[in-house]
Amino acid sequence: MTDHDTTVAELRKRMAAFVQERDWEQFHDPKNLAASIAIEAAELMEHFQWVPSERSGAVRDDPVALGEVAEELADVFAYALSFANALDIDVTGALFAKLEKNAAKYPADSYYGRYE
Asked: Structure pTM?
């Protein structure tokens, strides 16, 4: 399975089945899932702690490090999908709405190449 042939709905369904098979719904309330997202994001950040920004992309050239980073990203995403399932949030709708909001807030012609 790849990004090119899998829908968000399929990912959510697969995550829900994984959780259900283990009877973890009892633990997957919004508060616990939000905390888990933050914890896993911190674990992802650990791979880049103390690495200068200009060298952070070098992880692409190290298959072991890239695998570890991909695993942490998968953990973040798995909890994010479970969070969406717990609150019945349409991930695609939420993302598109946020992109639209940010496009209005940060018009490309005014913010091109700038972050402030």
From this structure: 0.92
- Tell me: pLDDT of 69 over 90: yes
Find out whether 76 and 37 touch, Cβ atoms under 8 Å.
yes
The yes/no answer on whether domain 3-88 falls in CATH 1.10.10.60 is no
The answer to whether 100 and 33 are in contact (CB under 8 A) is no
Spell out the domain ranges in the chain: 3-88
Positive/negative CA dihedral, 91, 93, 96, 100: negative
- Helices 63-87/8-21 angle, 10° precision: 80
- The percentage of residues in the chain with a pLDDT greater than 70, rounded to a whole number, is 100
The answer to whether 30 and 100 have CB atoms below 8 angstroms apart is no
